[in-house]
UniProtKB/TrEMBL annotation:
PANTHER family reported in the protein's UniProt record: ARSENICAL RESISTANCE OPERON REPRESSOR ARSR-RELATED, HTH-TYPE TRANSCRIPTIONAL REGULATOR KMTR
Alphabetized SMART domains for the sequence: HTH_ARSR
Chain ranges of the HTH arsR-type domain: 9-103
Keywords attached to this entry: DNA-binding, Transcription, Transcription regulation
Recorded coiled-coil stretches: none
Protein name, per record: HTH arsR-type domain-containing protein
GO molecular function: DNA binding; DNA-binding transcription factor activity
One Pfam family from the record: HTH_5
Record's keyword annotation contains Ribosomal protein: no
Keyword flag Transferase: no
Domain of life: Bacteria
Length: 143
């Protein structure tokens, strides 16, 4: 995290924590982090999982990288992203627990929200296929 302009001392831990939380305050970035806690992934894989354009996911990854939450490695022409700390999954599990306390739902740590994200993505893809078939015309709608 950057220190305020003109600051000569160490970064305030509260400001740093607020910056990390702010980076995670976007639903797409939170989904990306969940997906990365399962395994490292490319931008294209993440874009498919969160149902967003590659360019948008790249912007989200830049924000997460600036907050110190993700790191990357290059393999040929592809770049793979992963959490920059092993504590990312534990932190996200705590968020799930806190959310459960706030909402009264029985969330459990370790719930695989990445699997849920894949299910949501698959359902969206199926809806898009059905819409394409409907737009193709009456004879093709049931194929």
């Amino acid at each position: 995290m950057e220190k305020p302009h003109g600051s000569t001392g160490p970064a305030d831990p509260i400001d740093t924590a607020a910056g990390v939380l702010k980076a995670l305050a976007d639903p797409t970035r939170l989904r990306i982090m969940w997906a990365l806690t399962v395994q490292e992934r490319s931008v294209g894989e993440l874009a498919e999982m969160v149902d967003a354009h590659v360019a948008a996911v790249s912007q989200h990854l830049a924000r997460l990288r600036a907050a110190g939450l993700v790191s990357s490695r290059r393999d040929g022409t592809r770049i793979f992203y992963r959490p920059s700390t092993a504590q990312a999954r534990e932190f996200l599990d705590e968020v799930v627990l806190l959310t459960g306390h706030v909402t009264g739902e029985q969330a459990q740590p370790g719930d695989d929200l990445a699997a849920h994200a894949r299910e949501v993505t698959a359902a969206r893809a199926e809806r898009a296929r059905r819409a394409e078939r409907m737009a193709a015309g009456p004879g093709l709608a049931h194929s």
